[in-house]
Specification:
The protein is mostly beta strands. Helices cover 13% and strands 34% of the residues. Strand 11 and strand 12 form a beta hairpin.
């Protein structure tokens, strides 16, 4: 059990549970606000850092959540103009769309003998970072996504980009290191689902068809991505394959220029960086809690051997759908307030027939989505221990704590996961900030949601204040409870 100080959320009259507003459209990286229209830092801004650890190059960058107060529109700061409940409603809507999209991808895989459709989300993510591309470097902002693989940006000639062409997409003509992928290159022939077209010895044109009918297309190319060291020196990484997108029919990408995929296929940024000398195939991040108004930006490391982390669970492969490069894990059970719940052992298994089911870590989904069997067991036990009136605000179950006369005790929720050794399970502990979200004054909502999806998702709210390590060398995920602010 953990104590919850009686923090008061802003008082509002109505909780909006379905909101159509887009998120704020400015981003701050490393303390600098990047306005919409340029969407980029100044050329002399430090976008990332590097140091040497055990002879491996280590890159450090900063992620910022779209609901951080530094995310603001050029016209108005939406953090100030929107109510607290409106931001939560927007997060709920965005999270559900993301979860449903992942679910549809899995269902499509399960019902087809073809390889997967697009590995990219068609809605915006929760975290973004600055990237430097080309020679000399051109600056861009891209969403970060552990649930996708390809790195891609808006490119000239911009027929229909995700932001107006006037927003200055990547210009290949200004880069001496730009090289189009040819039809005979492995990057073209290995492209997911063979959704690439070639004419003779010409460039490799790619096309991605998304669930929901959205698409992205353009030219597959090689470029140099540059990171800036602590001492101000530049660390260029050459020959990164990326999508030079020229025709996008995607939605919900205000103020950003593309996506940096962190999935497991050969096209993701970690896979490509680790193929070069000096980079270990490990990345980690530490996410600040949702709506933490005093926090700095979340940190991201690539190539960091986190020797202080000793808790690991294996990354599980979906052998039925090998192209689904999500970060699956084996959950063996769940406890609430120290009580092990009676949940059938196969609830969290990947279906051995069609590849549906299973549970993944995903940084792009805000909340945690569980099947009804697991969710109902959690809610029943949580209610028996957290004895406050229940208020239903779909998709959330909330608690009215106005009657509290002392410090509120919040039952902890623990996900028990398979250990690397195969011995006793290891525990992924959810503290109060991972479990309850302050919505209205005295009203707190569970961040775990029940939805009949084809896959379960441990979202970024559950991962907040954990140092998460994705060790792709040893095929394991590790974590340690910490303070990410």
């Amino acid at each position: 059990m953990e104590s919850l100080m009686r923090r008061r959320a802003p008082v509002v009259l109505v909780l909006v549970v379905a909101i159509m507003f887009q998120a704020s459209t400015q981003i701050c990286v490393g303390g600098q606000i990047l306005p919409t229209g340029s969407g980029r830092p100044n050329d002399d801004h430090e976008t990332s850092t590097t140091q040497e650890v055990n002879h491996n190059k280590v890159l450090k960058s900063y992620w910022i959540h779209r609901d951080h107060p530094d995310f603001s529109s050029s016209a108005a700061n939406t953090y100030k103009t929107r109510s607290h409940s409106e931001r939560i409603a927007a997060a709920a809507r965005r999270s559900l769309i993301r979860a449903q999209y992942i679910s549809r991808r899995v269902l499509l895989h399960a019902s087809s003998s073809k390889s997967f459709d697009s590995p990219l989300e068609y809605v915006n993510g929760d975290y973004a970072m600055a990237v430097s591309v080309g020679t000399p470097p051109q600056q861009f902002i891209a969403w970060i996504d552990t649930g996708s693989d390809l790195v891609w940006l808006n490119c000239k000639p911009c027929i229909q980009c995700i932001v107006p062409a006037a927003d200055n997409p990547f210009d290949p003509a200004l880069s001496s290191s730009y090289q189009e992928v040819s039809c005979t290159d492995a990057a073209c022939t290995d492209f997911p689902n063979l959704l690439s077209t070639c004419f003779g010895k010409g460039p490799c044109d790619y096309f991605y068809g998304y669930a929901g009918g959205t698409t992205t297309s353009g030219v597959l190319a090689y470029e140099t991505f540059t990171f800036t060291a602590l001492d101000g020196s530049s660390i260029p990484v050459k020959h990164i394959t990326f999508g030079c997108g020229q025709n996008e029919t995607l939605y919900g990408f205000p103020g950003v220029d593309g996506i940096v995929g962190l999935g497991q296929s050969r096209f993701s940024l970690p896979s490509q960086l680790s193929s070069g000398p000096g980079f270990a195939d490990i990345f980690s991040y530490c996410l600040i809690p949702l709506f933490d108004t005093i926090a700095n930006h979340s940190t991201f490391y690539f190539g960091v051997p986190e020797t202080n982390i000793s808790i690991y669970t294996p990354i599980v492969s979906n052998t039925i759908i090998p192209a689904a490069t999500f970060y699956y894990v084996n959950v063996t059970g769940i406890s609430v307030g120290g009580v092990l719940l009676d949940i059938p052992a196969d609830t969290f298994y990947i279906n051995p027939v069609d590849g549906t089911g299973g549970i993944i870590f995903d940084d792009g989904t805000t909340f945690t989505y569980l099947t009804a069997v697991a969710y109902d067991a959690i809610l029943k036990t949580f209610q028996s221990q957290f004895k406050f009136p229940v208020v239903s605000l779909p998709p959330f179950q909330c608690f009215d704590t106005s009657s509290a006369t002392a410090t509120i005790i919040v039952p902890t929720i623990v996900l028990h996961l398979q250990s690397v050794s195969g011995a006793a399970p290891v525990d992924f502990k959810l503290a109060e900030d991972n479990i309850l979200l302050p919505v209205l004054e005295f009203l707190y909502c569970l961040t775990i949601v029940s939805d009949p999806l084809s896959i379960m998702i441990i979202g970024n709210t559950a991962q907040a204040n954990h140092q998460m390590v994705f060790d792709r060398v040893k095929h394991q995920i590790g974590w340690a409870s910490t303070t990410c602010t």
